[in-house]
Amino acid sequence: xxxxxxxxxxxxxxxxxxxxxxxxxxxxxxxxxxxxxxxxxxxxxxxxxxxxxxxxxxxxxxxxxxxxxxxxxxxxxxxxxxxxxxxxxxxxxxxxxxxxxxxxxxxxxxxxxxxxxxxxxxxxxx
Length: 126
Description:
The chain is of the alpha+beta class. The chain has a single domain (8-109), classed as CATH 2.40.50.100. It is 19% helix and 35% strand. The strands form 2 sheets. The protein has a 6-stranded antiparallel sheet with strand order 1-2-3-9-8-5. Strands 4-6-7 form a 3-stranded antiparallel sheet.
């Protein structure tokens, strides 16, 4: 499994990549592997400001539906429109084209509470 070191991770298996004043959020390689084939991504929170660890949408696989949790507080600026027609991008390119939302961070200091790639790997190895 792949866990890029330039990302931060949550115990709920989301990742966040900060790019200036915005950040991209997705699920980890571990999460997409556990879920299996992704068939639908439902994000209805665009335009909303959502607190850290609150639900911003759901992701549906063949066998289950899982909530998606905010890794840090912020306004949801955009959902990845490509996933409407190609939800399998989450499986194919989880850290690239399979991103879920773009957010404007409310409190960048919250990123300090997230896990490094090494800490996340230890978490899932348990």
